[in-house]
Amino acid sequence: MGNTIELDQVSKAFDGKTVIDSLSAAFEDGEFVAILGPSGCGKSTMLNMIAGLERVSAGRILIGGAQVQDSPPKDRGCAMVFQNYALYPHMAVRDNIGYALKVAGVPKLERERRIVEAARIVELGDYLDRRPSALSGGQRQRVAIARAIVREPKVLLFDEPLSNLDAKLRHGMRMELSQLHRRIGATSIFVTHDQIEAMTLADRVMLLNAGRIEQFATPHDLYHRPATTFVAGFIGAPPMNLMAVEGDGATLCLPDGTVLAHHAHRGPVTLGIRPEKIATGRGALTAKLLYREDLGSHSSLLVRLPGGQTIQIASPFGTEIGALDEIRFDFPADQIHLFDQKTGHRADT
Amino acid sequence: MIETNGGINRTASIILIAGIIFILSPLAIALLVATQSYEDFVAAGGISLIPGRHLIDNIAHIALETNLPRQVLSSIIIATSVSAIKCAFAFTATFALVFFDCRWSKLIFALTIATVMLPLELIVVTTYQVVANVAMPFNWLVDLTGLGFLMERLGGVAPHLEWNLLDTYVGIAAPIATSSTSVFIYRQFFLSLPRDLPRAAAMDGAGPIRFLIDILLPLSKTPLIATFIFWFIGGWTSYLWPLVAASSSDMQPAIVGLSRLATSEQDRIPEVPMLMAGALFVSFLPVVLIAVMQRRIVKGLNLSEK
Lengths: 349, 306
Ligand SMILES: Nc1ncnc2c1ncn2[C@@H]1O[C@H](COP(=O)(O)OP(=O)(O)O)[C@@H](O)[C@H]1O
Ligand SMILES: [Mg+2]
What we know:
The structure holds two protein chains of two kinds.
Chain A: E1 5-14, E2 17-27, E3 32-36, H1 43-51, E4 58-63, E5 66-67, E6 78-81, H2 93-103, H3 108-121, H4 137-149, E7 155-159, H5 167-184, E8 187-192, H6 195-201, E9 204-209, E10 212-217, H7 219-224, H8 229-234, E11 241-248, E12 251-253, E13 259-262, E14 266-273, E15 279-294, E16 299-304, E17 310-315, E18 326-330, E19 337-339
Helix pairs in contact in A: 2-3, 2-4, 3-4
Chain B: H1 2-34, H2 38-44, H3 55-65, H4 68-99, H5 105-114, H6 124-132, H7 136-144, H8 147-155, H9 169-173, H10 180-192, H11 197-203, H12 208-219, H13 221-237, H14 240-245, H15 254-262, H16 272-300
The structure holds adenosine-5'-diphosphate and magnesium ion (MG).
């Protein structure tokens, strides 16, 4: 069985308000999964239910094949890294890391050995006798991680662990977390609202929206084959352009008749295309440039289509495009995504 | 810029000095009067501010000829118990209120705070009756349920328990050892702690009691010490209830003993210098305590983690 996690129709309601809605998913042994979603969508609630800090309202949670939804946290083999670290302020780093072992009654020598080992993994060896208040944000983060791994947990849970760090530190920590995961091999769940963290770290990403799974797939699929318009609009910066079009069996047209692309779809549909996949400088379509940002590597353009819709284009061309010109561009047929207008689900296969 | 600051500083200093004079003058008067002999005092025809030479004599008289030293010991025992009970109950009650999700916790907290409006002075007669026989509620219950009647029929005697706690330290301390104010103070402090702290402890396998002892108690050292000193002084200066509850001179706290000094003989001008010397004697310990601990008191009542 290994350290798999299964969620079987898990629901959670606070005072009658549903936060997680009959959610089912399976996490493989040793997998690194990111739970991604806008703030308030239920990510932390999800994580807390797996950890045992929050009871499920309905459904089953299985860790390593055993039902744990009614067990207390200590019997689930999970460890957690909290967003604000939640270190014990009055204890030295050593005691912070070793507290779980002390509670579990691990003998002092063995405890000390494991504390030193955990501290070594997160490169904290020199700080064992300091109080958390004498550490920087990044170092506190490391203590929190050491505290989690010292018990050799089956499952490692992270609740937005990097969101309190500055951008540079976050990047470094991301790399370290990735290496740490490879080294420890525990099944890891990483909650974040930052898509870059999710996309770079995780084997698979569970994109949550209002307590439901929008898509649970590899970062590659999330980007290249978004399952819903929500995913399309959430992943990518800037996100995918979405516009309502009408298919006549050969072309996809805007309501004003402008032909955007060639496709065999019939009937109304939502067309999606990523800003960076729009071919510029040539093509059958023209639009008025409203605003441009030159980012060196590429330009970010905001243009208005003849029908009045505005779309984002990321163009590799920089200064070649004149100040406020008409832009020529094209939607390559293989870069088009189609979504059902009513359900928002992917319509092309 | 600099001139304005100077102006503000000068004004602030003047206000502070005025405040200090206002607060210290009664103490200064007490100290001055305590240095005079009874004869000086009577001769002056009232309180005069001329320092005398009898401070040592007066204090020695208090220490050797009156029961005040014994009563100071009573005060220490009573004030310590009052303060310790207050802190312990308030701490555990607040722990339950803050860290356990309960639908009623807001209501319970409101009720707790509402007891501030029920000072002991208001219910002193009832309290006296209860302390005079702590088993009273039990007797009442036995009567109410008809159990007493039943047992009288069967065994011939109705159960009636007597347990008098008047004139004991427990009886004097317990009724004044409730403190909803501490609940309020501790609650504010607990709420200022990182929200995930109890969760982190739960992940580390610590149950509620372990969390209370290993994490919460050490973190709360500052507010605990501050409130302890605060209530110690409160217990030290409490007057009405000890006056009612303690009948023997030995059990009376020093404050009550002090008031007895004033009324030793009728038709005689009170021995005000001796009284003032007694006041100095009685307030010596609390003053030292505050002087030594004042930084901790201020820190602890700041209601924050640091
Ligand atoms: N203890 C709680 N009581 C009531 N509502 C809660 C509680 N915890 C979370 N919620 C609600 O559940 C929703 C999801 O919260 P959360 O899981 O923390 O979101 P996220 O971590 O995705 O930002 C939010 O609307 C929040 O207000
Ligand atoms: Mg959250």
